[in-house]
Design goal:
The protein is of the alpha/beta class. It has 2 domains: 199 residues, FAD/NAD(P)-binding domain (3-Layer(bba) Sandwich), CATH 3.50.50.60; 132 residues, FAD/NAD(P)-binding domain (3-Layer(bba) Sandwich). The chain is built from 9 helices and 24 strands. Helix 1 packs parallel to helix 7, helix 1 crosses helix 9 and helix 5 runs parallel beside helix 6. The chain is globular and about 65 Å long.
């Protein structure tokens, strides 16, 4: 248990779910008549709230925000470091690299815990991937790729880019890449999008896949289905059939998995490793433990579960934080609520597409969908501006966001 008279809510993770879990807890404490003895701490590996879904874009200079000023407005303490252990019996987390200079680790006691540590790119043990491959999993990864592309352009060489993985990240990056390379002075760029599936864009459903195919053809992106990469070197990739693809730039976007912290917590896990939670974001059979965002799987409409998406992560975070505070002060908790599931896929200068539902029914394409995507990426998923206590507490309310108009 947390020491002393002050009770603690600890949130792990400063992404879409973690930031809004902290804000949701602060919102509930604001509403309470007596909250003087409750403190909120957010632990994150660095000082940034990353707008991760924008990492495929050419300019990501504003795709991360300092966490400190945001949390300070809400009275939330920020601890920077890596969580290395979670003890649900003793109710402590161990954080490395936290504290004063020279202190290697510290423990934080908690009375309520919200796990919102997100997800990470799957990086298989393929020879050469770690040494020669790139990714856009984090802001730093994406910035490293941008620096690499600029250096290649400066040498007027390396016009071929191989992107491995044709999920949402891979498709969006591939559609952005031709224009990005031309903007760097490479007049005839070669962009290849490869995937192990027998169809590029297979996860987007039968209605959306032809639109993706048209976009790739129009933008000059080569689509290579049924491809397995077995080795990567400085000059390209070797495939499972022994053939090669020559490319000075290989970007790995294939697969994502929840944070390894999920495995530290007992309870029911989904097949993909996420912690299963109820509609209040509680981890079953663990008193005082909540989970939200990519690390958690919550029930949704039609017997489905939440997906790894900021669309679900933000309301999950608000609900988890709000309920952690409710639970601590003895109030009834609320159930997760959000709009029906949609997917908006950026297709570069071709436009975008919008699908509705888990079966991904195509409802909109072209410039109208592109405008939706741009508004989402650059406005809707950011903290409010100006980010003061009043605006942050209003945004932290765990209610359904304004309903999106559908065509």
């Amino acid at each position: 248990m947390a020491e002393g008279s002050v009770k603690h809510i600890v949130v792990i993770g400063g992404g879409f779910a973690g930031l809004w879990a902290a804000m949701g807890a602060a919102k509930r404490l604001d509403e309470a008549s007596d909250n003087a003895d409750i403190a909120i701490t957010l632990v994150n590996r660095d000082e940034w709230h990353a707008i991760r879904v924008r990492n495929y874009e050419t300019n990501i200079s504003d795709a991360r925000l300092p966490l400190g000023p945001l949390l300070e407005q809400a009275g939330v303490e920020l601890v920077i470091g890596e969580v290395t252990d979670i003890d649900t019996d003793q109710r402590v987390v161990t954080v490395s690299g936290a504290g004063d200079a020279g202190e290697k680790s510290r423990t934080l006691g908690w009375d309520r815990l919200v796990l919102a540590a997100g997800s990470a790119l799957v990086r298989p043990d393929i020879p050469g991937l770690a040494e020669f491959g790139f990714s856009i999993d984090t802001w730093d990864d994406a910035d490293r790729l941008n620096t690499h592309l600029q250096e290649l352009a400066d040498r007027v060489a390396g016009s071929s880019v191989l992107i491995v993985g044709a999920g949402m990240t891979g498709v969006e990056l591939a559609c952005e890449m031709p224009a990005r390379l031309r903007g760097l002075g490479i007049e005839q760029p070669r962009v290849i999008l490869a995937d192990s599936s027998d169809q590029i864009g297979s996860s987007f459903g039968n209605e959306a896949r032809p639109v993706i195919t048209d976009a790739l053809i129009t933008l000059g992106v080569e689509a290579l289905p049924s491809v397995n990469v077995t080795e990567i070197d400085r000059k390209g990739a070797t495939l499972g059939d022994g053939s090669r693809i020559d490319a000075a730039t290989i970007v790995w976007t294939a697969g994502v998995r929840p944070s390894g912290l999920a495995a530290m917590v007992p309870g029911e896990h989904a097949p993909d490793g996420r912690l299963r939670v109820d509609s209040c974001m509680r981890v079953a059979a663990l008193d005082g433990v909540f989970a939200a965002g990519d690390i958690a799987a919550a029930p949704t409409e039609g017997g489905n579960e939440t997906v790894m998406s900021c669309q679900h992560g933000r309301p999950m975070g608000r609900t988890a934080g709000y309920n952690a505070a409710c639970d601590l002060i003895g109030n009834d908790m609320i159930s997760l609520r959000f709009n029906p599931y949609v997917t908006c896929l950026d297709l570069g200068s071709f436009g975008a597409l919008l699908t509705a539902g888990y079966d991904r029914r195509l409802v909109e394409t072209g410039e109208a969908a592109k405008e939706r995507k741009t508004t989402t990426n650059r406005i809707n998923i950011y903290p409010p501006k100006p980010a003061n206590r009043t605006s942050l507490m209003a945004a932290a309310a765990p209610v359904v966001e304004p309903k999106r108009s559908m065509p």
